[in-house]
């Protein structure tokens, strides 16, 4: 059985104010992300389908030119290759799911942990 603790174990820090902990199965990756207020995830796209659930805080989310402020409990679906960005309006925690799995993040985590 493969298990992890997304809340307490070491997180990746891809940029200042971003704390990311991935966990992957064969076809899906789940991320626990903590964003400090004011931090921005720049506009980008990727092959993965993505679900983003706001656990706490407020997140200004842009998807293909449409902007909406998401609050705790709200979720957004990002289709494969859709351009999107986000800005944390407050300290924010999100859970994101990706399919196919984000092997790039798992490799970075393994290197960080010396596995």
Automatic annotation (TrEMBL):
SUPFAM superfamilies: RmlC-like cupins. InterPro entries: Bacilysin_H2HPP_isomerase, Cupin_2, RmlC-like_jellyroll, RmlC_Cupin_sf. It comes from the Bacteria. It holds the Pfam family Cupin_2. Residues 33-92 form the Cupin type-2 domain. PANTHER family: H2HPP ISOMERASE. This is Cupin. It comes from Deinococcus cellulosilyticus (strain DSM 18568 / NBRC 106333 / KACC 11606 / 5516J-15).
